[in-house]
Amino acid sequence: MTSPRTIASSLICCKEDIGGKKMRWRTFMLQRVLSPNFLLLSALLFLASVTAAIAQQPLNTLLVDVDHRPAISLDGPWHYLVDMTGANLYTPQGEIRDNTYALNQHLDVSGPTKPAEYNFATAPTLNVPGDWNTQDPTLFRYEGVIWYERNFDFQPKPGIRTFLHIGAANYRSHVWVNGKRLCDHEGGFTPFDCEATQVLHSGSNFVVIAVDSTRLVDGIPALNYDWYNYGGLTRDVSLVAVPAHFIDDYDAHLVSGTSNKISGYVHVEGASAGLPVTIKVPEAHLATTVTTDADGRAAFDLTASSLSLWSPGSPKLYKLEIAAGQDTLNDDVGFRDIRVEGTHILLNGKPIYLRGVCVQGEAPYHSGRVYSEKDVDTLLAWVHQLHANFIRLAHYPNDERMLRAADRQGIMVWSEIPLWQHIAFDNPEVYTKADFMLHEMIRRDRDKASILFWSVANETPNNPTRTEFLTRLVEQAHALDASRPVTAALNTARLEGSTMTLTDPLAQVLDVVGVNEYIGWYQGEPTLADTVTWDLPQKPIIMSEFGAEAKAGNHGTIARRWTEEYQANVYRHQIDMFHKIPQLRGTTPWILMDFRSPTRNLPLLQDGYNRKGLISDQGVKKQAFFIMQKAYEDGAVGKPN
Ligand code: GCB
């Protein structure tokens, strides 16, 4: 059943052109309070025509390439108040309150007229970015609402629009600036922007963000998942200044099958027909000027005399410069061609094998959400040491730093939305949310050459409702980005006799099929891998998960579960098995590093961590790491390329 809280949010969070290429966004901006009259009107409008109702809401655009724009960082200490019952955020019906926390920042708590029992100014602080669970021991297992607040000085400039950019907040967020409700957002791993131009003033301003990490039946992910529900403002927060009309979306990709043709588009928010847009790649001596159409969109084509194509061995990035009206935007982009031909994956026209590993966004050594260059560098250094060239970012879009680093370091990436196992596929609102998350992921990261595939889901049940839902989502991913293959990880292969057969119809709509299997851990003995044969679709296959748990330093015979020896033995048998799958084009063992999970509580062995890492959360490499490393190094798995 849909919770009232979620109905409220889905009513106000919509976008204009779900299927189209235009991709304009409306974060639900409520500068009006939810008065009964307003709610009634909204409901009537909604019933009459969702599209018409949405069209009347103010437009809010998702910014892209934010790390290349001038910005005022709002990272650092924010005051916080814990709202355990959510009573200050939600009405008893689950709607957002016209509440005082957001309005009354500076309280005279001892005065006669204000009986307030809270005060941000004297409240403790949490660091942003950062999850709250690892910053305050009393919040370690907290799931619920926390109110964040901070002051900032600001000087508005004429003709400049200012957006509050939130890199990610888990799971739902409600934003006020100077007491005015600006926007709300659902989804813990993608960015959102609230336009604050109208509410900012000279001098001291304040922002209040209520973040609710409560898991929802109709959330994505839903109630149960195998990673820690880190709550809070987990990624950077900033104020981003742009001119009145600005570049809010663009694409520049190598035309498939060529080595020197670039094609793309630029969209200028607020522009109409006839605005000149200049696109340059100076190092390749490329420049063109095109003009926007009535929707503010300008398509372009460029032909270079030659280009150094991006690849793991040569991760060449070019400076891309875009100018449109008053706005300029730079980016560092690689050009490469990724496509599927028969059972092959071709990078720049050549077949590749993806020597990969799955990676969770869990910080090495100190746990918590990854948000720093240091954490990213530690994780990617281990990926290189493994002789891997590919990471499956399971199960959600990572901090943008991870993708930038992958671009620079030549590591290829599978990027996924957190549609994990049991999702309310029969709920149309959940489809809308999934579609939003897919758009947000593609919009933020389409400029990253490292990303080879978009993944729409992990381990979903094989039934018609799920298949219809995900088929639509795959079509959507293709419509939004025709330059990348689409994948998903399936765990629906079944053992019949000695054959693992995958008949899941979802595989038919995927370009690349991910197969998760745990022979030797959840299924049979490790030696089952020796006798099993695979009946898989004639498409490129990636073994997107396999492995076993072991606590680093726990030793014993290969027959003893939880030991490094047992885990290593599972890997040996898996590696031998891979030779029996002719269309295997990649392997991503589960997982690079042990990670926190609420369901992994076996004392002395798990203690709150999923221990399938090749490396412990404290950076200790287990025997399986070296098995996989050798297999990748000497080509026992995947031919070096
Ligand atoms: C899976 C899931 C992954 C889990 C893993 C496990 O199949 O995709 O999220 O963490 O198995 O360790 O059980």
Structural description of this entry:
By secondary structure, this protein is an alpha/beta fold. It has 4 domains: 4-56, no CATH class; 66-243, Sandwich (Jelly Rolls); 256-336, Sandwich (Immunoglobulin-like); 355-634, TIM Barrel, CATH 3.20.20.80. It has 12 helices and 35 strands. An 8-stranded parallel barrel has the order 23-24-25-26-27-30-32-33. The chain has a 6-stranded antiparallel β-sheet with strand order 5-4-6-11-8-9. The protein has a 4-stranded antiparallel β-sheet with strand order 3-12-7-10, with no helix packed on it. A hairpin with a 2-residue loop joins strand 28 (494-496) and strand 29. Helix 5 (373-385) packs across helix 6 (400-409). The model is unreliable at 1-60 (pLDDT under 50). Bound molecules: (2S,3S,4S,5R)-3,4,5-trihydroxy-6-oxo-oxane-2-carboxylic acid.
